[in-house]
Every structure is written in structure tokens, then in C-alpha cells.
């Protein structure tokens, strides 16, 4: 997984000039983004442009007094009136009791693909919208201290393909054919094959015995190969 960098702030609903939304672009997360002190609405939103369109596998958010948070994703190529898709449905960052007492303000929440809406998983996005609110404490300043995005974990590489001119063994019998000098069928082997075919009720062709029959024949071949 690799970091997904944020290029710039597209828009915001409110900000304190001392704590602007651009603080979310800082990698150290020292200064938060807070709403304007004169703005008495108890909801803030900010829209961020990512450096490139990428799948999102992990989101880490640093809270700064918000009670609720919702995360949405979209694309810069979409029309302005096209709604974004919900990545993380509204989650609780502070309880009503903590909000009223103005305590436990600076927790960190970490989200992974299992927390995301199914429609957004595995697709590439270059816009992220964060909407946070604090309806329980009308006097508390609130916002976010940081956001970190990362791509999903890399898939394990496919097993190496066999070299050209070889056949990948799909059962023990083909593997033996490739690696061992199989002797010509003896009279005893033919009798064993016919006997197994009769036991299976002639439901299978002698050329395509069942797995159990193949194992018996394999044991017979191994015995024939021993000095």
C-alpha cells in the first residue's frame, strides 16, 4: 500500500483564517482545520483534490472536536451537479456526553475497505469530500487535524508460469509421465485396469478412470518402477 497524496483544497464551507483547510495538506498534522468562529452552523465540509486518480484502501482521520463524520468520493471529470458516492457512511467520533463536556476531542479513526460502501471499493477516485458536524455543543470549536489516504494492499503476484515447451502437471499421472520412464503396460497392469473398470460399473471409459482408480494404477506403476 502506498500513500495517496492530496494536491489542493477544491472548496470548503467555512474556515478559521488562522486554521485554514490547507492545513489538511500538511503531512505533520500540527495545525488543524477549524470552522470560522463567526460561523454558527454546526456542520463543516471540505473537498480535496488528489494528486492522481487512485483506488482507496485505507483512510486515517484525526478528529478535532467533531461528533460525526462522513466521507464521500468522486471524480474531477464529473459534472458539477453529479452527486458524490459515499465512501464511509456517517460515523460517530465523539459521544454526546463527551461533546457536551468537551473531552476526548482528538481521537484518531482508521477505516479500511471493509468499512467502505461496496460501490466505491476497487474504483479509482481523485476527489474526497469530508463532512463533519458537532450538534451537541454550540460553543465548541471543531474540525479535523489530519487525513491520510492509502491504496489497498498489493495483491500477491501470480505464480510463475512454466517454461515454454513444458506442461504444468494437473495430476500425479501427467507429472510421472513428464519425469519418470514409465514402462510399457504389462499383462498384470491390463488385468488390473480391466478389473477396476468392472468395479466402477462401466460408468467411465477405460481411458478416463476415476480418481480412486488412477491412484491404484499409480501405486502399481510405482511398484513396477522399483528395481
Task: Briefly summarize what is shown.
The chain has helices at 96-101, 172-179, 187-199, 211-225, and strands spanning 3-4, 6-12, 33-34, 43-55, 58-64, 68-74, 85-92, 108-112, 124-133, 143-150. With 227 residues, it is α+β, with helices and mostly antiparallel strands.
Question: How would you describe what is shown here?
Answer:
The chain has four helices and ten strands. It is elongated. The two termini are 55 Å apart. It is an alpha+beta fold and 227 residues long. Strands 1, 3, 5, 8 and 10 form a five-stranded antiparallel β-sheet that branches. It has helices spanning 96-101, 172-179, 187-199, 211-225, and strands at 3-4, 6-12, 33-34, 43-55, 58-64, 68-74, 85-92, 108-112, 124-133, 143-150. The protein has a domain at 3-150: Galactose-binding domain-like (Jelly Rolls, Sandwich), CATH 2.60.120. Helix 3 runs antiparallel to helix 4. 19% of the residues lie in helices and 30% in strands. Pfam families: XRCC1_N. Residues 1-149 form the DNA-repair protein Xrcc1 N-terminal domain.
How many helices in DSSP terms?
Answer: 4
Regions with pLDDT < 50 over 5+ consecutive residues?
167-183
Care to count the β-strands? Answer: 10
Q: SSE order in H/E notation? A: EEEEEEEHEEEHHH
Gyration radius over CA: 32 Å
CATH superfamily grouping of the domain at 3-150: Galactose-binding domain-like
Tell me the distance between the termini: 55 Å
CATH topology description of the domain at 3-150: Jelly Rolls
CATH class of the domain at 3-150: Mainly Beta
By CATH, the architecture of the domain at 3-150 is named: Sandwich
Q: What profile does the largest beta sheet have?
A: 5 strands, antiparallel
Query: Which structural class fits the helix and strand makeup?
Result: alpha+beta
Beta-strand share of residues = 25-35%
Amino acid at each position: 500500500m502506498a500513500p495517496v497524496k492530496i494536491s489542493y483544497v477544491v472548496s470548503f464551507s467555512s474556515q478559521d483564517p488562522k486554521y485554514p483547510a490547507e492545513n489538511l495538506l500538511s503531512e505533520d498534522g500540527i495545525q488543524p482545520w477549524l470552522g470560522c468562529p463567526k460561523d454558527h452552523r454546526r456542520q463543516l465540509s471540505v473537498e480535496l483534490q488528489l494528486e492522481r486518480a487512485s483506488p482507496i484502501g485505507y483512510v486515517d482521520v484525526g478528529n478535532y472536536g467533531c461528533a460525526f463524520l462522513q466521507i464521500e468520493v468522486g471524480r474531477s471529470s464529473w459534472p458539477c451537479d453529479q452527486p458524490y458516492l459515499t465512501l464511509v457512511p456517517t460515523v460517530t467520533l465523539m459521544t454526546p456526553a463527551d461533546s457536551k463536556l468537551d473531552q476526548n476531542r482528538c481521537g484518531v479513526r482508521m477505516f479500511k475497505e471493509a468499512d467502505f460502501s461496496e460501490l466505491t471499493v476497487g474504483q479509482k477516485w481523485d476527489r474526497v469530500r469530508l463532512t463533519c458536524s458537532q450538534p451537541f455543543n454550540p460553543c465548541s470549536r471543531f474540525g479535523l487535524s489530519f487525513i491520510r489516504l492509502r491504496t489497498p494492499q498489493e495483491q500477491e503476484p501470480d505464480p510463475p508460469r512454466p517454461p515454454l515447451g513444458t506442461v504444468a502437471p494437473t495430476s500425479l499421472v501427467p507429472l510421472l509421465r513428464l519425469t519418470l520412464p514409465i514402462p510399457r503396460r504389462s499383462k498384470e497392469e491390463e488385468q488390473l485396469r480391466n478389473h477396476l473398470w468392472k468395479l466402477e460399473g462401466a460408468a467411465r471409459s477405460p481411458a478416463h478412470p476415476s480418481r480412486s482408480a488412477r491412484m491404484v494404477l499409480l501405486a502399481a506403476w510405482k511398484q513396477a518402477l522399483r528395481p
